[in-house]
Automatic annotation (TrEMBL):
It comes from Actinophytocola xanthii. This is Ribosome maturation factor RimP. Belongs to the RimP family. Keywords: Cytoplasm, Ribosome biogenesis. Required for maturation of 30S ribosomal subunits. The keyword Cytoplasm applies.
Length: 167
């Protein structure tokens, strides 16, 4: 079922972040979490509705085409949502979306807050205090965006951009 849902989400222009199917009374609850690199401020209600329609159509087609029996065991409830601010940064695209945001990072014995710079497929550049360092994703045990109520300090942004421009 996951490939069918992932394909429907991708055709709608989004990324499947998480899929979970669980029993909820007599029905199955299908929870789909979607995200996008292109959604600057997150995914809006219109986009969630669009993905919901696409996933529902794909699941219904899967149920109709499955002659050996129902994949979901009958009726289901579909819940489509976007990830919350507190979701862990686990993929390069999460780090790219968090660019210039403040993050809390735990890497082995080291725990720190940092400002996110450029991210590639192997790691991310972080401004930790006054030092820019490259951190490999494999070294990060846990990382989340921290809520800030002000714009990032201009000096921090300038430091990140200067270091990234000089690579």
């Amino acid at each position: 079922m996951e490939p069918v849902v992932a394909d429907a989400v991708a055709r709608a222009g989004f990324d499947l972040e998480h899929l979970r199917v669980q029993q909820a009374g007599r029905r199955q609850l299908v929870k789909v979490v979607v995200d996008s690199d292109n959604a600057e401020g997150g995914i809006g209600l219109d986009e969630v509705a669009e993905v919901s329609r696409a996933v529902a159509a794909a699941l219904d087609a899967l149920e109709d085409s499955n002659t050996a029996g129902s994949v979901l065991g009958g009726s289901y409830t579909l819940e489509v949502t976007s990830p919350g601010l507190d979701r862990p940064l686990t993929k390069p695209r999460h780090w790219r979306r968090a660019r210039l945001r403040k993050v809390a990072v735990r890497a082995g014995e080291d725990a720190f807050t940092a400002r996110v710079g450029d991210a590639d497929e192997q790691g991310v550049r972080l401004l930790v205090g006054d030092e820019v360092r490259h951190v490999s994703y494999s070294d990060v045990e846990h990382a989340v965006v921290e809520v800030e109520f002000r714009e990032p300090p201009a000096a921090e942004i300038a430091k990140l951009e200067h270091e990234e421009g000089s690579r």
